[in-house]
Amino acid sequence: MSQDLALRAFGRTDVGRSRPNNEDVVLVRDDLGLYAVADGAGGHRSGEIASSLAIRSLENYFGATIRRTHEEPEFDRFGIPFGARRLSAAILKANRDVIEIAKSTPAHKGMGSTVVAACFSPRSGLMHVGHAGDSRCYRLRGGHLEQLTQDHSLLTDVLEQRPELDDSVLERLPKSVVTRALGLDPKLRLSLRSYAVVAGDHYLLCSDGLSGPVPSVAIAEALASHAGPEMVVEDLISRANAAGGPDNIAAVVIECTEGPETKSVPPPPPGGVRAGRDAFRSDPELLILGIEELESLDADSASDDLLQALAALLGKRS
């Protein structure tokens, strides 16, 4: 990273206290400015294959395109950061890789993985975050903890489509069903956002094995301890296990030790492209998988949990 943006990071996974094997994988590549967490799912140990493949694919893509980061302008003519497009392309490539292996090996059919990845662009001082599923990214800034990602979960999607539903109905929905993940659909729609990085920021990438049992107050307390990324990761994993460790646990903590003192606004796009009805926006539109789309999913492209959720929904609506 450049002298204007200095980072310290550490990541680790833990099997937890309830699962026989570990399907979570983390990536910490300071030299690439790339950090990620993948949480695999699938029978016959396929989940760990999916998550490992996803992380390796991300790493390989960033390694193969590092020269372009010096050749391409920081923003394209539409004002979209090159780093955001690069991260999006890397995640979509990982999705294709997982699907290809799943199709070529019968034992791995139906495997998939959530992913949350962050990359940092020194020239613009931006962090780009892309995710699919319920693995999350948090930011602690000025003592305030903010969840930067929104889970692609059945509950979230139902609330976006049917916010008037009674809580008693929502309580009966499966709690651990994701509606987007690598390996489910060749036309994956991921969520991607860019944020200005400020000196003193602390970021956490984690699987639901951490965000589920550990409340946000405890996450904020751990990140605010200033104990260093390694100690914070160990603390967070200990907290998840102390809460029962119901799932595999993955955590990557990134601390910005040097950078801008205040949030900066990226420069206007080169060429003076005007914002209009048909112009591209710097924050890509979040496309939601609605209930009607959920009903039309092909069984071969959906996880068992998603099929169970579909059956539950159809039962409630009939």
Provide key terms for this protein.
5-stranded antiparallel sheet, single chain, 10 strands, alpha+beta, 318 residues, 22% strand, 32% helix, 10 helices, Phosphatase 2c, domain 1
Helix and strand run: EEEHHHEEEEHHEEHHHEHH
Name given to the CATH homologous superfamily? PPM-type phosphatase domain
Distance between the terminal alpha carbons, to the nearest Å?
A: 56 Å
User: How many helix segments?
Assistant: 10
CATH topology: Phosphatase 2c, domain 1
Q: In CATH terms, what is the architecture?
A: 4-Layer Sandwich
Largest sheet: 5 strands, antiparallel
The tally of structural domains comes to 1
Strand order of the largest sheet: 1-10-9-6-7
CATH class category label: Alpha Beta
Q: What is the CA-atom radius of gyration, in angstroms? A: 19 Å
| Beta-strand fraction estimate | 15-25%
Give structural notes.
The chain has helices at residues 46-64, 68-71, 82-104, 154-161, 167-170, 208-211, 216-223, 229-242, 291-295, 304-317; strands at residues 6-14, 24-29, 34-41, 112-121, 126-132, 136-141, 144-147, 191-196, 202-206, 249-258. It is an alpha+beta fold and 318 residues long. The chain has a five-stranded antiparallel β-sheet with strand order 1-10-9-6-7. The protein has one domain (6-263, 287-317): 4-Layer Sandwich (Phosphatase 2c, domain 1).
